[in-house]
């Protein structure tokens, strides 16, 4: 259980109406989810915990693993990988591809662009084999990151989402968790690799299949997916005025149905809901108690702006509650996720926003422990 529960604030106002009805275009979609990640609030959902086949949306986890390895300094963007003959033969003509030839050398940067923009199946496999030694080795990294993120309904056995007998499955809720973590933890890499309309490699230009790019203002990704077994899927996101929405469409019957539903759902999220600002990006939301550190507390900050979402034309009460396992044991690394802020708008399901350590706190030395003990006696 989460310990260290503390009420942060309660903002009183006049209650409004219930949540607006979602757009009719979403009605035939088997799985859907729309989350406002600045508040963590679910604006619309249908069967969001159901496991389903992600198809090429799997590549979002491949990109996330790469981003984590880049951030840790273990993978460089200019590191080159050689295309194995077996990999080229198996993947260069399978639906989406960079048509990679045997022995061709590509760097991480090019492979990630191919994965994010072209949905290149061969690029995903080259990266997986080159970095982890094998597809199973890379899949182990994918599942490790899924566990760390709390993606309890997801499992991965392939880097590109090619049919594997149902071994690779996700839920809409897990996909939003993944997308939110990618955007929060790696904003620069996300903006660089996702949301590109086309890619040219080896003289061939291919367009992104994202149905929202250039159509929905602020849309910047993330990934479509389609196989006969999975149907037409989409994990998308858009940002306007500092407010970001993340959405999932799963199991659509056709590409046009997926596109229509995705566009309508994002537009509805921006037009039918408004925000009440709570904290600016980087502002100290609260302080967490630290045990065994050179400081007795650490500031808790959000990666982006924090706000409450509520239906247009309403003003509803907002209750904020801090959740963290406390006291937090030192050492604490700056940027480590250590708490969550629960945002509860009357009439809506509460949302949660992750909070991060605003500074590093090293372990206390003998003198620090003595001083902390004396301060504790005074307090």
Please describe the biggest sheet, giving its number of strands, its sense, and whether it closes into a barrel.
7 strands, mixed
Looking at the structure, what is the overall shape?
globular
Q: Which blocks of ≥5 consecutive residues have pLDDT under 50? A: 1-16
Instruction: Tell me the Rg in angstroms.
Output: 22 Å
Number of DSSP strands? Answer: 18
Q: What are the secondary-structure elements, in order, as H or E?
A: EEEHEHEHHHHHEEEEEHEEEEEEEEH
How many helices?
9
Question: Largest beta sheet: what is the strand line-up?
Answer: 1-15-17-18-13-12-16
- Secondary structure class reads alpha+beta
**Overall mean pLDDT score?**
92
* Portion in helices: 25-40%
Beta-sheet strand percentage? 25-35%
How many angstroms does the end-to-end distance come to?
Answer: 27 Å
Give the oligomer, counting copies of the same chain as homo and different chains as hetero. Answer: single chain
Could you characterize the architecture of this molecule?
- With 379 residues, this protein is of the alpha+beta class.
- α2 packs antiparallel against α4 and α4 packs across α5.
- It is globular and about 60 Å long.
- The N terminus is likely disordered.
Q: What is the element layout, followed by pairings?
A:
Layout: E1 6-11, E2 31-36, E3 41-46, H1 58-71, E4 80-82, H2 85-91, E5 105-107, H3 108-118, H4 121-132, H5 135-149, H6 172-185, H7 187-193, E6 198-201, E7 204-207, E8 219-227, E9 231-240, E10 243-252, H8 255-271, E11 273-279, E12 284-291, E13 297-301, E14 306-311, E15 318-324, E16 328-329, E17 337-345, E18 351-357, H9 366-378
Parallel strand pairs: 12-16
Antiparallel strand pairs: 1-15, 2-3, 2-10, 4-5, 6-7, 8-9, 9-10, 11-14, 12-13, 13-18, 15-17, 17-18
Helix pairs in contact: 1-5, 2-4, 3-4, 4-5, 6-7
């Amino acid at each position: 259980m989460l310990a260290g529960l503390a009420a942060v604030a309660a903002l009183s106002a006049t209650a409004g109406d219930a949540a607006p009805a979602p757009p009719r275009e979403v009605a035939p979609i088997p799985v859907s989810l729309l989350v406002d990640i600045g508040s963590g609030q679910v604006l619309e959902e249908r069967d969001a915990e159901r496991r389903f086949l992600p198809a090429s949306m799997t590549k979002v986890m491949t990109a996330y693993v790469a981003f984590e390895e880049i951030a840790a300094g273990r993978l460089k963007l200019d590191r080159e990988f050689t295309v194995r003959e077996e990999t080229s033969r198996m993947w260069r003509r399978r639906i989406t591809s960079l048509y990679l030839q045997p022995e061709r050398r590509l760097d991480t940067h090019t492979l990630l662009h191919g994965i994010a923009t072209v949905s290149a199946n061969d690029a995903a496999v080259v990266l997986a084999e080159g970095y982890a030694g094998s597809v199973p080795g890379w899949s182990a990294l994918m599942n490790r990151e899924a566990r760390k993120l709390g993606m309890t309904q997801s499992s991965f056995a392939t880097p590109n989402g090619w049919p594997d007998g149902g071994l690779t499955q996700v839920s809409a809720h897990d996909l939003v968790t993944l997308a939110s973590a990618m955007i929060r933890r790696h904003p620069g890499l996300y903006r660089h690799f996702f949301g590109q309309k086309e890619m040219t490699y080896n003289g061939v230009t291919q367009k992104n299949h994202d149905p929202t790019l250039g159509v929905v203002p602020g849309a910047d990704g993330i990934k479509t997916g389609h196989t006969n077994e999975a149907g037409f899927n989409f994990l998308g996101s858009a940002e306007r005025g500092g407010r970001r929405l993340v959405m999932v469409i799963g199991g659509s019957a056709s590409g046009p149905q997926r596109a229509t539903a995705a566009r309508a759902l994002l537009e509805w999220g921006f037009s039918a809901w408004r925000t009440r600002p709570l904290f600016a990006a980087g502002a100290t939301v609260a302080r967490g108690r630290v045990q065994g550190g050179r400081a007795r507390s650490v500031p808790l900050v959000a990666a982006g702006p924090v706000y409450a979402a509520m239906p247009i034309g309403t003003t509803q009460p907002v209750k904020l509650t801090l959740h963290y396992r406390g006291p937090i044991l030192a050492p604490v690394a700056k940027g480590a996720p250590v708490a969550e802020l629960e945002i509860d708008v009357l009439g809506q399901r509460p949302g949660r926003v992750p909070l991060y350590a605003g500074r590093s706190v090293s372990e206390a030395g003998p003198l620090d422990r003595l001083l902390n003990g004396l301060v504790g006696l005074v307090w």
